[in-house]
């Protein structure tokens, strides 16, 4: 039981699972610590896409065995991970960009290892799109909710938005380029014309920001070229107790909290 409660991380001699953050755009976001851990502490890397990870390793002159890890094969790969750890090998889990597990694969393995096995899980810090977006959004970052990706279907997406409609602090979403305008229209419908910030291609040469009311940003983006390219982060301001959305008011007021208002 003690092994499941207390962990020393780097001080222990047990095999480790390193959760290594990778660049979200600029390759210089790869930290010296991450490079050192991959070079000297890791025997195998479980990664979202072996092709992308190979390019990253080649850039830093690193060579490690790569194994794909995605939402389709995560349960299957778990057995291989345990075999590696049992053989006294330390492994890394990384995604194509940013932190593993955060809208990326890895949760199943980490949860099972911490719950059932005596191995250490060690995070290696790095870039994160959500944090970059919130601190540069112009919205108050004292408290915020990271939501990640909304559901792809309109009905479920509407319900998800309605359930967070009266949170009094900003909410951060990730969105694919081909769904951006549709999602912003739904945000406008459900949450009202709030202040938002939208950013694409964070830390890359073509990084672009759009700030203003939801309607202003929507109108501007509708006339922009190349909207359907790049990965987006959307930051939406919190609820201010002014009813702006019939959809959200109905779902929140009648189904959830009886019309309570955060102030």
TrEMBL record:
Keywords: Cytoplasm, Methyltransferase, rRNA processing, S-adenosyl-L-methionine, Transferase. Its EC number is 2.1.1.198. InterPro entries: 4pyrrol_Mease, 4pyrrol_Methylase_sf, 4pyrrole_Mease_sub1, 4pyrrole_Mease_sub2, rRNA_ssu_MeTfrase_I. One of its GO terms (molecular function) is rRNA (cytosine-2'-O-)-methyltransferase activity. HAMAP family: 16SrRNA_methyltr_I. Belongs to the methyltransferase superfamily. RsmI family. NCBIfam families: 16S rRNA (cytidine(1402)-2'-O)-methyltransferase. Residues 16-217 form the Tetrapyrrole methylase domain. GO terms for cellular component: cytoplasm. This is Ribosomal RNA small subunit methyltransferase I. Its main location: cytoplasm. It is found in: Cytoplasm. It comes from the Bacteria. It catalyses: cytidine(1402) in 16S rRNA + S-adenosyl-L-methionine = 2'-O-methylcytidine(1402) in 16S rRNA + S-adenosyl-L-homocysteine + H(+). Catalyzes the 2'-O-methylation of the ribose of cytidine 1402 (C1402) in 16S rRNA.
């Amino acid at each position: 039981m003690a092994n499941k409660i207390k962990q020393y991380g780097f001080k222990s001699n047990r095999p480790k699972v390193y959760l290594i953050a990778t660049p979200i755009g600029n390759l210089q976001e790869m930290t010296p610590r991450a490079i050192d851990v991959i070079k000297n502490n890791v025997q195998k890397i479980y990664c979202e896409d072996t092709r992308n990870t190979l390019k990253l390793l080649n850039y830093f002159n690193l060579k490690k065995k790569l194994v794909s890890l995605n939402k389709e094969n995560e349960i299957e790969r778990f057995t291989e991970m345990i075999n590696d750890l049992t053989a006294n090998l330390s492994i890394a889990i990384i995604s194509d960009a940013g932190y593993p597990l955060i809208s990326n694969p890895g949760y199943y393995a980490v949860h099972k290892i911490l719950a059932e096995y005596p191995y250490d899980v060690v995070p290696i810090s790095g870039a994160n799109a959500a944090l970059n977006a919130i601190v540069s959004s112009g919205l108050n970052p004292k408290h915020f909710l990271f939501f990640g990706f909304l559901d792809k279907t309109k009905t479920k997406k509407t319900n998800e938005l309605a359930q967070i409609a009266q949170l009094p602090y900003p909410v951060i979403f990730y969105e694919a380029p081909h769904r951006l305008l549709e999602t912003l229209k739904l945000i406008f419908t459900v949450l009202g014309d709030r202040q938002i910030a939208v950013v694409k291609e964070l830390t890359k040469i073509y990084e672009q920001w759009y700030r203003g009311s939801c309607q202003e940003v929507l109108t501007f983006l509708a006339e922009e070229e190349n909207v359907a390219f790049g990965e987006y982060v959307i930051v939406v301001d919190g609820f201010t107790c002014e009813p702006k959305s019939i959809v959200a008011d109905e779902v929140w007021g009648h189904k959830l909290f009886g019309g309570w208002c955060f102030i």
